[in-house]
Amino acid sequence: MEATMKRSLLIPASxxxxxxxxxxxxxSDDDGGGTGDGATTIEVTDAWGWSAMDDRGAVYFTVSNxxxxxxxxxGATSDASDTVEVHExxxxxxxxxxxPVESVEIAAGDETTFEPGGYxxxxxxxxxxxxxxxxxxxxxxxxxxxxxxxxxxxxxFVDDAMEEADEEM
Amino acid sequence: VCAALVxxxxxxxxxxxxxxxxDVTTPGALPSSVTPSVSPSGSLGHEHAEAPLDPDIALxxxxxxxxxxPSPAALPAGVLTDQAGTPFDMADVTRGxxxxxxxxxxxxxxxxxxxxxxxxxxxxxxVPDRVADRxxxxxxxxxxxxxxxxxxxxxxxxxxxxxxxxTGDGKAIERLMVEMGLEPANxxxxxxxxxxxxxxxxxxxxTSDRRAHLxxxxxMTVPQWTHDLWKLVDEGWRQR
Lengths: 169, 240
Prior knowledge:
The complex is a heterodimer. Chain A is an alpha+beta fold. Chain A has 3 helices and 10 strands, in the order ααββββββββββα. Chain A has helices spanning 2-10, 13-28, 157-168, and strands spanning 42-51, 56-65, 71-78, 83-92, 95-100, 104-106, 111-114, 119-124, 135-142, 146-154. In chain A, a hairpin with a 2-residue loop joins strand 4 and strand 5 (95-100). By secondary structure, chain B is α+β, with helices and mostly antiparallel strands. Chain B contains 8 helices and 11 strands. In chain B, strand 7 and strand 8 form a beta hairpin. In chain B, helix 4 (112-126) crosses helix 8 (222-235). Chain B is globular and about 50 Å long. At the A-B interface, strand 2, strand 4, strand 5, strand 8 and helix 3 of A face helix 2, helix 4, helix 6, strand 7 and strand 9 of B. Strand 5 of chain A pairs antiparallel with strand 9 (199-200) of chain B.
């Protein structure tokens, strides 16, 4: 939170109100974004993650921009790893490629779901595998809304898919 | 005998709450030919059930949710090494099964590889054993420099111990990809000496005629996979 406060000092006064509202919301609620005060324009929900092998993981979530201005995710940090990047997987002609991206714009009134095959927050050099059933803290940095911290639930590959299957059947 | 039936029924339905068995086992689908001696692999309820459809998406005219290839790749030969350290010739991948699924990826891939393998593993857990036992899932690394035999073993075990994890000579892997009509993988530096790999986003399904008639693009759901694999096992590949 100290880092968060410092950062908010760098943000123009016009958005400081929003940022402070966000901080207040996050301080008491790990669900991401504001719930109840109505001032927050970026909301992050349904955060989850997994680790592929010993040293890499990915975190996914849904970002909703309920404001009237576009915002962008420009960075991320986590208590699970010192090396965190925002990546995008793209697929064309049946070939998948993954690359770091500078920012991910979330248009006003829009919602973007970070999911396998699209955007993810990538955790590199994990000191240990992420514990299934546990959770990690991920702080997302938005250009306008500042930092939003969420808890990402760590899922298992197969059980996760089975849950979806049950829902769909 | 009853106890035996129950014990085989439970694992076959595990994960789906037995709901699907009820859904697909229409009265008409329980014919007189039900064999009293149920094989150890499969439940009575599933034994003669047809492949269940995805209730959310209409079945394409091809009869499969996966893409049907007009000119399917022929199965190439090429010897790699499985997770037990045993030589594995790709030419034998369909031996003893009705469907061999071949997917190229790498263990450091945090995104679509685990999603895809997790979907296949979930599918195989949800179908009757008589279907799952006729499907072989093979994961071939495109990053043999990092993915050695041991690491492939650890990785595929995260999904399903029946999965085969192959590594080997990079050139041999690349040749297999090209012969299967796939783009060879490329190294994509991500900074700090790290790299990602480009790799096919699709799973090829080779049937007993040693051709990949079906290609499963990324993003197909468990119900869609379930239908297609089940149908391929029951009916084999038939040109429509």
